[in-house]
Design brief:
The chain is an all-alpha fold and 212 residues long. Helix content is 68%, strand content 0%. Helix 1 crosses helix 2, helix 1 crosses helix 4 and helix 5 crosses helix 8. The longest helix is centred in the middle third of the chain and has 27 residues. It starts with 13 loop residues before the first helix and ends in a 10-residue tail after the last helix. 32% of the residues are buried.
């Protein structure tokens, strides 16, 4: 959510779109290499092999291009969630697939996920945008929890939004701890543990579990 006064119009030509895309890709390289605070516009334009004037054709500030980089990462982070399940799907298997997709996408974007923590502390617009994106995930998962409650699969005394916020927050911090900060942890272990905790919290059992 960039300042509306600095938002540039989308490129009107294919060449302009390619130049803008090249700047976003170059900015990601520079941000991941140098961090947000130490990145310079001249480094971004050098990486993109274009002029500073070209940069200002598409972006007003370093913050604007960072927003664009994070928008690309956000699109990559979107994955099939539990709200996509069909009536006959095993809900635990759907949660597992959703968690795996999230961790794999997080791993691809781990450096940016760490940078967003930094930028959110110094840029109010980005902080608001980050909260908005997080709440979109929470609301999606809350709708899924409500559907499972309506189907008699989940404790109906759980408030869906607060439950989704707690469980989604657990998964996000687990990803940040292991994949962004680099604490040892295999994705398979992250998937197993987070899925088990989701299922236990909701009172779900997998249909493939021989003990049930």
């Amino acid at each position: 959510m960039a300042d509306a006064t600095t938002v540039k119009e989308p490129p009107a030509t294919a060449r302009g779109a390619r130049t803008r895309a090249a700047l976003i890709s170059a900015a990601r390289v520079v941000f991941e290499r140098d961090g947000f605070l130490n990145s310079r516009l001249t480094d971004i334009t050098a990486e993109a092999a274009c002029s500073t004037g070209s940069f200002y054709t598409y972006f007003a500030t370093k913050e604007d291009v960072f927003f664009a980089v994070m928008e690309r990462a956000r699109d990559d982070m979107l994955h099939p969630g539990v709200h996509h399940q069909a009536p006959d799907d095993d809900p635990v298997a759907v949660i597992e697939a959703s968690n795996r997709a999230y961790f794999e996408a997080y791993q691809r974007n781990a450096r940016l996920m760490m940078l967003q923590e930094q930028v959110a502390t110094i840029n109010a617009d980005f902080r608001a945008s980050r909260i908005e994106r997080g709440e979109a995930f929470v609301e999606r998962n809350a709708r899924s929890i409500k559907r499972m409650q309506d189907a008699g699969l989940v404790d109906e005394t759980l408030e869906p939004v607060m439950t989704a916020r707690a469980l989604s927050g657990m998964v996000a911090r687990l990803a940040y701890h292991h994949l962004a900060l680099g604490v040892d942890g295999d994705i398979n272990d992250l998937v197993f543990t987070s899925t088990k905790l989701w299922a236990n919290a909701l009172g779900l059992t997998t249909r493939n579990d021989p003990s049930h």
